[in-house]
Amino acid sequence: MHSQSSEKASPIQTAESFDVVTLGETMLRFTPPSRNRLEQADHLQVHIGGSESNTAVGLARLGLKTTWLSRLPSTALGRMVSGELARYGVDVSHVVWTDNARLGLYFLEEAGPPRGSQVIYDRSDSAISRMTPDELPRSLFEANKLRLFHTTGITLALSESTRETALLAAKLAKAAGALISFDINYRSKLWSPAAAAQHCQSMLQLADLIFIPDRDIQTLFQLPAVDEPERALETLAGRWPHATWVMTRGRTGSSAIAHGTFYVEGIFASDEVGRLGGGDAFSAGFLARYLESHGDVASSLRWGAATSALKYSIPGDLPLMTRAEVEALVKNNSPSTNISR
């Protein structure tokens, strides 16, 4: 293994400003076609996927200026990731490139009942796990350079240095007057509930917007989110009253609490082609509307629901819907079943 000091890695400094700055890992995803098991597959479909970059793509597709911070290997695989994100409108000019690292991979076995889908990670010691606070592009974290910083609990789980980097980015963004958005996004294959609850504390104290699925509320905080969503959100808001809490509830819809007011939104019907990335699409739709409406939580929930529904109709992890599609779904309250000719 190479030590960090032996690696050639440096961020590119620019003086640009962005609506949203995201930080996290993006991996290559390999999926057997037609719901085959990996051991059956003679070829695999290749996609890219990562929670923060999925959200960044969704925001870019909705018209926001977005950049993604990360650390990639100077290889064909690293270039594939950055090229795909750039293709869909995300700025990647601040990525840290290194000669001595690997790209994280994951494998998805898609399935239906009674066999559940399964994710297999191969991401240990990936390039971003060695990212350090001094590799952050400080020029981004100045007043009037960003409106919102977004990261997730997945990034905090990757390593101590990655956690320190994300926390410093949030502190710098906060000092610059930006909003902080944090998706807890618990992954049981990365860390335990106790470790997640402990190490997310600092980010929860900083965050203005916190996204969490109902299952994670039960797992991390032992609250009855599924049966009593309003009570669970009120309890969380009591612990962290400065933040707006947004709970996704799968096919039940979504809820939020902000300054003592409780909000509820349903779902839009969707033919599920690709479910992975739906939560990231929800956060993209919510954040886009939240920034544009100066904090209208009710309409932001609706945009989140529409964006995630459209994502479910798209293979892969990326929410490649258009703003016009989201606006039409929000307005018409029903999905399109027609062929556009």
Report on the architecture of this protein.
This protein is an alpha/beta fold and 341 residues long. The chain has a single domain (16-23, 50-71, 88-95, 125-332), classed as 3-Layer(aba) Sandwich (UDP-N-acetylmuramoyl-L-alanine:D-glutamate ligase). Helix content is 35%, strand content 21%. The protein contains eleven helices and 15 strands. Strands 5-2-10-11-12-13-14-15 form an eight-stranded mixed beta sheet, with helices on both faces. It has a four-stranded mixed beta sheet with strand order 4-3-8-9. It has a three-stranded mixed beta sheet with strand order 1-7-6, covered by helices on one side. α2 (76-87) links the parallel β6 and β7. The radius of gyration is 19 Å and the shape is globular. Mean pLDDT is 91; it is low at 1-6, 10-14 and 336-341.
Distance between the termini: 56 Å
Uncertain parts: 1-6, 10-14, 336-341
Q: Helix share of residues?
A: 25-40%
Total strands: 15
How many structural domains can be distinguished in the coordinates? 1
Strand order of the largest sheet: 5-2-10-11-12-13-14-15
Anisotropy-based shape = globular
CA-atom Rg in angstroms: 19 Å
Q: Quote the beta fraction.
A: 15-25%
SS-based class: alpha/beta
Order of helices and strands: EEEEHEEHEEEEHHEHHEHHEEEHHH
What would CATH call the class? Alpha Beta
CATH superfamily annotation: Ribokinase
CATH topology: UDP-N-acetylmuramoyl-L-alanine:D-glutamate ligase
> What's the mean pLDDT score?
91
Architecture per CATH nomenclature, i.e. the level-2 architecture = 3-Layer(aba) Sandwich
